[in-house]
Amino acid sequence: MRESSDEARTPQSQGWTLEHTARYVSFMSQAHRKPKDPEQVRATLLDCARTLVVDAGVAGLSVNAVAAAAGVTKGAFFHHFGSKSALVDAVFAGLFDELDREIDEAIAADGERYGCFTRAYIGSVFRADERHQSPPFAGLWISAIADPQIRTAWAAWLRRRLGQHVETDSDNALQLARFAADGVWLADILGFETDDRAGLRDRLMEQTRKGA
């Protein structure tokens, strides 16, 4: 009986030795293997962790959950992050970087130096609300309330930024405006509805102008 075309193409039908066959299998295995780039794996772990933080806060973050969401083993997780704490630090460092960029862009576009940081800060608070508390702000603020590690990092970030803007944003009136903005996102977290958000934002912005 004539062999089928598939059978005719097998290594054994070509008279290969076991050594030849082993080399063939090894080559095909290497050809079809798709090694994961370490930086890509790390970025995926961070993205998955960030999503979990936004959804459930730091309390909802676990090594198993992040590894499963990223499609990697726990061993791969620990290759990139030595602990859950190290992962949390990396996630929030990224969130602070985003917040810095957004605020810096707003300051650069502001035509008035006095109160420029406070206006950028207030703008970020209300833009976060318009995005329905989407990242980076939802996870950052919720976790800052519940987690001592994040509270410390948040306080350090705010002190650093205020230290950069002592000449423009140190007045008590500006501090009160920032505190009022903080109350907006706190009200959202607690489930209180705020009427006329645009009007409230505009009123706070007015308070940041010199001579207001």
Automatic annotation (TrEMBL):
Keywords: DNA-binding. GO terms for molecular function: DNA-binding transcription factor activity; transcription cis-regulatory region binding. The keyword Transcription does not apply. It comes from the Bacteria. SUPFAM superfamilies: Homeodomain-like, Tetracyclin repressor-like, C-terminal domain. InterPro entries: DNA-bd_HTH_TetR-type_CS, Homeodomain-like_sf, HTH-type_TetR-like_transc_reg, HTH_TetR, Tet_transcr_reg_TetR-rel_C_sf, TetR_CgmR_C. Coiled coil: none annotated. The keyword Acyltransferase does not apply. Residues 62-81 bind DNA. Residues 39-99 form the HTH tetR-type domain. Pfam families: TetR_C_28, TetR_N. This is Transcriptional regulator, TetR family. It comes from Kaistia soli DSM 19436.
